[in-house]
Amino acid sequence: MEQTKRLLQIMSQLRDPDDGCEWDLRQDFASVAPYTIEEAYEVADAIDRQDHDDLHDELGDLLLQVVFHAQMAEEQKLFDFESVARGISDKLVRRHPHVFAGVKFETDEERRRAWEQIKQQERAEKPHKVPDSSALAGVTMGLPGLMRAEKLQRRAADVGFDWPDAEPVFDKITEELAEVREAMAAGDQAHIAEEVGDLQFAVVNLARHLKVEPEPAMQSANRKFERRFRAVETTLQSMGIAAEEATLEQMDAIWDQVKAAEKPGE
User: Fold this and answer.
1) DSSP alpha helices (H): ranges in the chain?
2) Residue 108 and residue 61: Cα distance in Å, rounded?
3) CA 91 to CA 76: how far, in whole Å?
4) Which residues, including other chains, have CB under 8 Å from residue 250's CB and lie 6 or more apart?
């Protein structure tokens, strides 16, 4: 705890009106928020790369974001770091009755549903907000699109609004793809964007039914594409050809070679 206290003191000094850092003093919740999101993604990236030294550093950067927000809140007499820590401690105890209150759950799904019920009760008990009784309440707008889609779908499924299995979702994807084609033929860009969104939402539904987390799956696909395209560039370079000068046929042929050389599952 000594180093936590030191960190809080350093942040307080950085925000000191007389002797602090000019950049830190100019910041507010809104201006710091993008850095907070960025640091969370950098933590996830270090985990994906299994770089534990980098993870150590990125967790420190993320902790700084919490301390930064807490310091600004304390200056405005809203709350402080201690109350943030107390709040999350209380929440963890409350949301884990199977650990702290002797409750027994037979399955992970039963535990997840209890977690969601506790969260819904917490939202209803907040005195400064108008109660939102919707099953979709509390799914934050700030989530990445794929992740938010999956959470919205899970909430709807909890109250019975869901396909019974994955099979009907394939038909829905085919339907949405046809609607994208229709919008494209009509040339209405706004309609095209809407239909592409519907198609993506349906694909997330398929992933959920197949017990695949859509956001990590998308990130994995991004990494695969990057790895293969970089290999295409390297091969072209060894042939004395710049990527922008290569034909699509050349790049496709090398792509197929790179793909064939990979082990299954890579």
Assistant:
1) 2-14, 22-26, 29-48, 52-75, 81-95, 97-100, 108-125, 145-158, 167-186, 189-209, 214-238, 248-261
2) 32
3) 24
4) 236, 241
Question: Mean pLDDT, to the nearest integer, of 130-151?
Answer: 86
DSSP state of 244: G
> What CATH number is associated with residue 78?
1.10.287.1080
Q: For 228-259, what is each residue's pLDDT tens digit?
A: 999 999 999 999 999 999 999 999 999 999 99
- Cα of first residue to Cα of last residue in the chain, in angstroms, is 42
89 shares a domain with 20 = yes
Nearest to 239 by CA among 229, 254, 228, 255: 254
Q: Is 200 inside any structural domain?
A: yes
With 0.70 as the threshold, say if the pTM is over it.
Answer: no
250 touches 236 (CB < 8 A): yes
Averaged pLDDT, 206-211:
96
- Rg (Cα) of the chain, in Å, rounded? 24
Query: Domain span at residue 243?
Result: 215-261
pLDDT value at position 265?
64
Structure tokens belonging to residue 117:
């019920």
